[in-house]
Amino acid sequence: MKNYQVTAACVVHIPMATATGITLGTLYRGAVFAGDPDSDKIKHLLDSGMIEEVGKAPTGGGSGQDAEPPQTPAAAGTGSPTVNARSTKAELVEYGIAQAPEAERNRVRAELENQTVKELQARFLQQP
Predict the structure, then answer these.
(1) Smallest Cα–Cα separation from 25: which of 17, 121, 89?
(2) 63 domain-assigned
(3) In sequence order, what E strands does the chain have?
(4) pTM tops 0.70, yes or no
(5) What is the C-alpha separation between 46 and 12, in angstroms, rounded?
(6) Residue 20 maps to which CATH number?
(7) Is residue 77 part of a domain?
(8) What is the dihedral of CA 116, 89, 12, 20, to 10 degrees?
(9) Disulfide-capable partner of 30 in 46, 59, 70, 104 (CB 3.0 to 4.6 Å)?
(10) CB under 8 A, 24+ apart: contacts of 57-61
(11) How many CB atoms lie within 10 A of CB 117?
């Protein structure tokens, strides 16, 4: 078994090694998992650049169950928040505010709060 990290936004039906054997799962960008390098699916994902081999042990996301997206908003004061497709509107707004210059934050907050979740996602998330 080798360790791999997801580089695409999301990959599905990934054969992963777990304590109970091989299982299929859905993983999101940044997730690290153990997989069989001889698996046709793993070879395909490597060839297409959707995953890459890493030299460290899995640090979560490879539990054999659908993993949560690896990026979650940071707690206030702990650095820049990050967002993903499961982020709430409040999290997306806070992310946008954190990206704005200090002097613009009140104006940006009002602008972002008037947008829908879909508009915020389109603004802040990478589209496949």
Answers:
(1) 17
(2) no
(3) 2-6, 10-18, 21-28, 32-35, 51-54
(4) no
(5) 14
(6) 3.40.5
(7) yes
(8) -160
(9) 70
(10) 57/3, 57/32, 58/3, 58/32, 58/33, 58/34, 59/32, 60/31, 60/32, 61/6, 61/27, 61/28, 61/30, 61/31, 61/32, 61/33
(11) 14
